[in-house]
Structure formats: structure tokens, C-alpha cells
Amino acid sequence: MDFKPLHKLYFNAKIGAFSRVTAREDYDSQITLTDIEADIVIDHFGIENIHVGGVKEDKAKSQKMFLLYPSLKPIYLNLNFPKPDKPELRLYLAATRGFRPVAGQIWFIYRNNENNLVIGALNENIWNNIDQQDNDDNYYQNTIEKTIIAKEKLQVSAEGKIATATLGSRLIYVRNPLLAVMRFQLSDYKCEINPNHKTFTAETTKMPYVEAHHFIPIKFQGIIKEPLDNLHNIVSLCPNCHRGIHHAVIDHKLDLIEKIYKKRQEIHSYHFDYIAELYNCIKIPNL
Ligand SMILES: [Zn+2]
Ligand SMILES: [Zn+2]
Question: Is 174 within the bounds of a domain?
Fold first, then answer.
């Protein structure tokens, strides 16, 4: 499968592909590159530089350099078209050379922004959870809490705006707490997945405890032109649903985002499948 926007952003990749290592590939210690995987590799090395025939016939030409994820240290793997009459591009796996994924793992290959070819493998549960953490969430929820306590007047445009700031050493997209409080008031401090979801009264605000979540996560602002920090994109969630939308198994996550999607006509310019991909809800087929 080809890299989705989520993967490109996470890996700093221009183009990439991933698939599950099959039992056969594991047994044979080799992967046959198909479709986009082959395209990326051929495009990178140049078809004339890929050896046709057995590895032993031309060891130098068969050996290719890849950067290994996550260290990005160079490794050398054999790559060839073993049969002159068949366009089957084959990559040989070898623990001694640093790359030996096993059956069931997700292996991936991508060209990064520096035009290097990076290869790696992760367990499927780790792969499915890529980039689902919101690292600045505590900070964001705290600023909302302070805004509720301060009882600030909600003079803010519902359409929001795009603004950046530095948090520590990182550049982040700003999330205005006033908009979140506006959303909490509209939802009556209830969970928008289901207003009957249980929460508790927060000591600091003496209000029902809910959390604000950006339905199209704010980290995608770089690829979306309208401001993501806008009232329509902010959802009020009970803590259980909020953790779930970040960390649950794919089916549960899909259920949560579908419920929100149905409620928010304003975001329907984005296809549901596109949003599901942003949440890494991607079912990888067995080949
Ligand atoms: Zn969130
Ligand atoms: Zn809930």
C-alpha cells in the first residue's frame, strides 16, 4: 500500500509503501517487491543499475545501500531481478546485514526529503499506532482549564485562524482555548459521542470534566488549507472517548470517528475514508 499523508508527515517521506511480511517471504528470507514498492526502488536506483540474474553473478551490482529505520544508518542488501524473463524485483533479507523482518511484521520503504531510500519494519500494533499521540495535549487541556476558571469572555471567531508558536524547541500550531470553551458550552460540557457518557466534576472548574479534541488533528495543518483550530473541528469528549480516539484498536476508533463525522456537516468536504486514514485506521490486506 502506498504511504498516506499520516505516514509522509511522520517519516518525512516524499513517497513510500508498506505491507505485511508473509509467512512465505519469511521462510524464503526474501521479499518480492510489487507495484509501488518496486516503483520506488527502481526509480531510486535506476533500472539500468539493478542486476538481472543471480546475486553471485554480480555481487557488486546486486548490493544496494539503504538507510535503516530508525537509526538511519546505512546497510547493504542484495536486490536483483533473478529471472531475466520475469520483471520480479527481489530483495534479500539478512540479519547479518541488519534487516530481517519476520512474518506478520509491517515492512516499509520510503524516499525521504533528502532523497535517501529508507527501509524498516515494525510490529503491526506499533505500526497501527504511529503518530496517534498528541504530545501537547496536557498543555492544551491545561490552557482550556485556566480559561474556564478565569471566566474569560468568549470573544473569538468561530472560524479560527492558523497560527504557530514554539513550545520548548518545537514549532507547534496554536490551539486557542477560547474556542474549546465555546465548544464545551455548546455541548453543555457533555461528550459529543454520547451525552450520557459518565464523567466527573473537576475540582478546579467545578464543571463536568470533558476534553477538547481536534477532529482533524492539528498536526495536519500543514496539508490542510483552512484553519483546523475552528469551532466545527473541535469536539467535546469524555476522557474515555478521548483516550479511545487516540489509542483504541482500529474498529473502535472507526466507530468513534464515524459518530463525530455524522454530526458535523461542516467537515463533510473531507471524505470519511480520508479522515480515517489520518487516524491511521488502515486495514492492511493479506497478500
Ligand atoms: Zn485529542
Ligand atoms: Zn464519551
Answer: yes
Q: How far is the CA of 239 from the centre of ligand 2 (A)?
A: 7
Ligand in closest contact with the CA of 194: 2
Residue 285: inside a domain: no
**How far apart are the CA of 76 and the centre of ligand 2, in A?**
49
Complete DSSP assignment for 18-84: EEEPPHHHHHHTEEEE-HHHHHHHHHHH-GGGSEES-GGGGHHHHEEEEEETTTTEEEEEEEEE--T
Q: Tell if the pTM clears 0.85, that is, is over it.
A: yes
Provide the H-helix boundaries in the chain: 5-11, 23-28, 35-45, 59-62, 124-128, 137-150, 177-186, 239-247, 250-263, 272-278
Pseudo-torsion of CA 179, 185, 191, 195, nearest 10°?
-150
Tell me how far the alpha carbon of residue 252 lies from the centroid of ligand 2, in angstroms. 12
Q: Contact, 26 vs 105, CB < 8 A? A: no
Report CA(215)–ligand 2 centroid distance (Å). 14
Model confidence band, residue 144 (pLDDT cutoffs 50, 70, 90): very high
- Ligand 2 center to residue 261 CA distance, Å? 15
Q: Which ligand is nearest to the CA of 187?
A: 2
pLDDT per position as a tens digit, 188-197: 999 999 999 9
269 contact partners, CB below 8 Å, separation of at least 6: none
Q: Please indicate, yes or no, whether residues 80 and 13 belong to a single structural domain of this protein.
A: yes
**pLDDT recorded at residue 278:** 95
* Half-sphere exposure in the Cβ direction for 232 (13 Å, CA): 14
How many Å lie between the centroid of ligand 2 and the Cα of residue 188? 13
Q: Would you say residue 283 lies in a domain?
A: no
Express as a percent the part of the chain with pLDDT over 70: 100
Q: What is the pLDDT of residue 59?
A: 96
Placement of cell 544508518 in the chain: 73
Domain with 151, as residue range(s), is: 137-278
